[in-house]
Amino acid sequence: MAKPIHIALDVMGGDAGAEMVLPGAEIALLRHPDIRFLLYGNERVVLPLLEKYPRLRDASTFFHCDVAVAMDAKPSQALRQGRWRSSMWRAIEAVKTGDADVAVSAGNTGALMAMSKFCLRTMANIERPAIAAIWPTARGESVVLDVGATIGADAQQLIDFAILGGAMARALFGVQKPTVGLLNIGVEEVKGLEEVRTAGRIMKEVPFRSFSYAGFVEGDDLGKGTVDVVVTEGFAGNIALKTAEGTAKQIGGYLKAAMQRTWMAKLGYLLAKGAFDRLREKMDPRKVNGGVFLGLNGVVIKSHGGTDAEGFASAIALAHGMVRNELIHKIAQDLVHYHRGRYVVPSDNSEGDE
């Protein structure tokens, strides 16, 4: 039997807190019986609800926490008030101590990133962590990063993101050498910001063992699935993510309204119900819920705060897959291989050498 995977849950995180987290964990446990949970939350809230899920209760260890990080708390405020004491901090700390293999929270994104950086620290030679999202495409799925950890990135940070994203694609998709593209306003080498052009030039020159650089990609390539990994900085990445989510909801609303307009439309819907169900399944954001914090000495998964139990179960499944496929080990290997070449991103007055 496979070795159990220990997952620490911030039970108080998200818009619905324990009422969403616990049933989500129950669903995940049914799909992945090798999971053992460490539950962090307020005993007055969690324990009565946990009794409704005996299977989950028996596969879990509960830890009482006095503090829950508010969804609207500023990261600095969350650190001051929640360090050492909150359910969010304790879940992350379990990864640091080795009691858990991964932490999952649907809580405040800024607070979760701040606590994760403070508690786990970044890996050697990584200046900034990134949030990577799973992106449904016409070909299947891609990894897109950064989708909101930090705003702006220089050439070296974009290259770091490519290494991190490449390792995640190998762990998630089983692709030996995934393709990586830099998001830009055009595919021509003369277009885009200086940092993006510099990163692109270097990635063409350096032979990366862990991925193949495919050049610049544009916004429409995200949906096409042109590459396995799309690299950008957090400002553009977050806007792209929110735009895609909003567009999916908009299209869903249009379809629903159109199918209810006339009795002929309703009849057509009934005749094509199977096709519409497959479309709904493909567009369901719950199936790809969960952003992975990459570049830290440990794995942290951020679930959407407004998701339901099914969506949270997807985030737990993502956490399970990242641990089972040794994401951290793959990232560490790729970073060592890259930095062993001692390639230095040139400044304005210097030349890079390998």
Task: Describe, in plain words, how this protein is organized in 3D.
With 354 residues, this protein is an alpha/beta fold. 48% of the residues lie in helices and 16% in strands. It contains 14 helices and 11 strands. The protein has helices at residues 18-31, 43-50, 54-58, 75-82, 87-97, 109-120, 155-173, 194-205, 220-224, 234-259, 263-271, 273-283, 309-324, 327-340; strands spanning 5-10, 35-41, 60-64, 102-105, 130-136, 141-145, 179-183, 212-217, 229-231, 291-294, 299-302. Strands 3-2-1-4-11-10-5-6-9-7-8 form an 11-stranded mixed β-sheet, with helices on both faces. β1, α1 and β2 form a beta-alpha-beta unit. It is globular and about 60 Å long.
Structure at a glance:
It contains 14 helices and eleven strands.
Give the key terms.
354 residues; eleven-stranded mixed β-sheet; globular; alpha/beta; 11 strands; disordered C terminus
What's the number of extended β-strand segments? 11
So what's the overall shape? Answer: globular
Based on CA atoms alone, the radius of gyration comes out at: 21 Å
Compressed to H and E, one letter per element, the order equals: EHEHHEHHEHEEHEHEHEHHHEEHH
What percentage of residues falls in helices of 4 or more residues? Answer: 40-55%
Number of helical runs? Answer: 14
